[in-house]
Amino acid sequence: MRLAVIVPCYKVENHIARVIGLIPDWVAYIIAVNDSSPDGTGEVLSKLASEEPRLHVLTHTQNQGVGGAVVTGFRKALELSSDFVVKIDGDGQMDPSELPRLLLPLLDGSADYAKGNRFRSVTDILQMPLTRRFGNVALTFLNKFASGYWHVFDPQNGYVAIPKEWLQRLSLEYLDKRFFFENSLLVGLNIAGARVADVPMRAVYGEEKSNLRIPRILGGFPIRLFKAAVHRILMKYLVYDVSPIVVYLLAGGVFLLFGAVFGGYHWLASIQSGKAASTGTVMLATLPIILGFEMWLHALHLDIVQSPRPERPARPVRVEDVPLYFTRESGSSGDRLG
Known about the structure:
Layout: E1 3-9, H1 16-22, E2 29-34, H2 41-51, E3 55-59, H3 65-79, E4 84-87, H4 99-107, E5 113-117, H5 122-127, H6 130-147, E6 160-163, H7 164-169, H8 181-192, E7 196-200, H9 214-239, H10 244-273, H11 279-305
Helix pairs in contact: 6-9, 8-9, 10-11
């Protein structure tokens, strides 16, 4: 089979040569996408393309963000008939030697999509920059709710692997073009029913600067995650299937709204009149709120239970044998710069 590695490139002139140099020789295609980088990344990639026959360099005339660069790489990988696709950042924070472990769940049939998880080791967590640590933890629960993958951690980890058949099921044009890319990808995979595997791995942090900003995390991301959750629930449990989850959410919302409005009205009336509300009035306001909250909890429980999870391996595959499943093929030199 043929494996393609996509490397989105933006302001990585000091790291990209080392990253590409570390990609193992059993990888068939290396697709580097220069996302209109203002530094010398383009010149470095052009030089590397003349030396590395596997390297295909694609260039954006306008910056599209990491998601836009990866989508361009996805389309190129499909054009090259790649059987599996892996995305590695160009800043050197993802170790190419982890490729066999990342691909293992896909080859043994236990999962349909694999991503890295940098939070399985206390040592690695302490080595992670504080801004990244805080940002990932702040996003984790919201991402679980939005994506429906309640067993997945470290949602912003972009070290991912996906087979061709699952990549073809995704609507690439609807994936987010910026930092929300990984999250939107998980939402799309959940709607399609893909099993996602969390692969523990370490991250490498050097002198590179993080583009992740806490105000951006605490500001725009929660709103976008909430919208993604609504989209996922409607598509998965109403459009593609009719699930009790939607019934519980809608009925629970009606009960909560009635209880809040009814209770709030009589609470204000009792304040203005100076008379305490009757026991029946209090109960009529309280019971719908309790019932509505219980319905929402039950919908949440069902969503967690129905979350696609990795299964037992369908076939025995050893990590050390993963490279044997792939073959190196060189693209034609006239097609490697674009």
